[in-house]
Write a structure and sequence with these properties.
- By secondary structure, the chain is of the alpha+beta class.
- The chain is built from 3 helices and 7 strands, in the order βαββββββαα.
- The protein has a single domain, classed as START domain (Alpha-D-Glucose-1,6-Bisphosphate, Chain A, domain 4, 2-Layer Sandwich), CATH 3.30.530.
- Helices cover 32% and strands 35% of the residues.
- Strands 1-7-6-5-4-3-2 form a 7-stranded antiparallel β-sheet, covered by helices on one side.
């Protein structure tokens, strides 16, 4: 797979909590930082988010690339179903990221999906690929595996937090 192909990664998990409970966790920008090896946190630019066009600054760290910040723009905010954003320019992002929440047919619960696409704009991989064009497929594949590992840790962490919140809420109702 080449960078220009727009390679993607996706992970999903079923969560024993309502979409509304999962949504509250998914849209907290700093939750993924608790579980990802790379993402270190983010802040909304100029106030709070919660709408298409809102911007935030993310902080990242990678052993091979050091530390850097990214500028993100929210491209989809459909509570409690989709939260998506791009890194960089909307027209030519370096990456696109999306969380999708789907109520489970069997009753209470939510299927949580995290999806990401590389490119089409330049990113941190661009210089690595330019330096070693013969290794592009390996570079892209390795990066996708890093993404999947961090995405898996993130959705599993969100699952744990949402299920804990759900249990605590149910406990409160039982005591009343």
């Amino acid at each position: 797979m080449r960078y220009a192909d727009g390679p993607t990664a996706e992970v999903e998990v079923d969560v024993d909590a309502s979409p509304e409970t999962v949504w509250a966790v998914v849209t907290d920008l700093n939750v993924p930082a608790r579980f990802s090896d790379e993402f270190q946190g983010a802040e909304w630019d100029g106030g709070s988010g919660g709408e298409v066009g809102a911007r935030f600054t993310g902080r990242n760290r990678h052993p091979a690339a050091g530390e850097w910040t990214t500028q993100a723009v929210v491209t989809d905010y459909d509570a409690p179903r989709r939260f998506a954003y791009v890194i960089g320019e909307i027209e030519l992002p370096s990456a696109a990221w999306r969380f999708e929440l789907e109520p489970l047919a069997r009753g209470a619960g939510t299927r949580l999906r995290q999806w990401a696409r590389m490119g089409p704009g330049p990113s941190g991989l661009t210089s690595a690929i330019a330096a070693r064009p013969d290794a592009e497929e390996r570079i892209v594949a390795r990066r996708l595996e890093e993404w999947r590992a961090n995405m898996r840790a993130t959705v599993e962490g969100i699952k744990a937090l949402a299920e804990q919140a759900n249990t605590e809420a149910e406990g409160g109702r039982l005591e009343e």
